[in-house]
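DM from R.C. (forwarded with permission)

"hey, sorry to bug you on a friday — could you get me a structure for this? deadline for the figure draft is monday and I only need the backbone to look sensible"
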Amino acid sequence: MKVSHLLTVALLTAACGGDPAPDRSNYDASEPAAAPAATSGETIETQTPAREPAEKGPQISSAPPAPLVAPAARAKGVNPHAAILADFKERVDAYMKVRKDAIKDAPKLKETTDTAKLKAAQDGMAVHIRAARQNAQQGDVLTPEIVAQFRRLLYPELKGDDGRDAKEILKDDAPSPQSITFKVNAKYPDNAPVPTVPATLLLNLPTLPEPLQYKIIGKHLLLLDEEADVIVDYALNVIR
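My reply, with the result:
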């Protein structure tokens, strides 16, 4: 009986394919499954989970900062640079309209050799302009987008030997930045020299209607109503 029982067990084991299945009574579900064994002529590749890219620090570039893209231009698919310059023109035109309405009752500026009369007419014009735009603030005309665009336009002309020459011209007759009140509607000082802006720089900036002019004081840009000696707007650190 014992021999026949052993024979029966041996036959059953052979019929089930050889070795008995491993004991999984202590199997942990969190344990990774073993990779299947390779068969003849077959390569088994194991996949490594993709790693998240390491977070990079801020990138510092020596190139001028790119101008901010106007949301309206992006929405309409318009060239953002052209849209920013068009926005600047609209803001300048809006100032000129306010100016025209403001000075219609102001004393007229006439050619005269009497400096006192000229000064009185200029001051009267300035009073009317300031009253008409008493709530004006920095950035109403020279918005951050426009200033960034101006930096981009001026950057090529301020590099290399030609750029050094242009910067020297800016320094020659420019007043000290400390002598100018950088404030919208402020008066440009009577005794301060009016700096010359090199033609190479002016050619890269939008044309202004008279009597508006660009003035560069140190690294800063003024938008000046020259007839009334009123600072229309200003932007700091435009020149690098």
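R.C.: lifesaver. The first strand starts at residue 212 and ends at 217.
me: no worries. The chain has seven helices and three strands.
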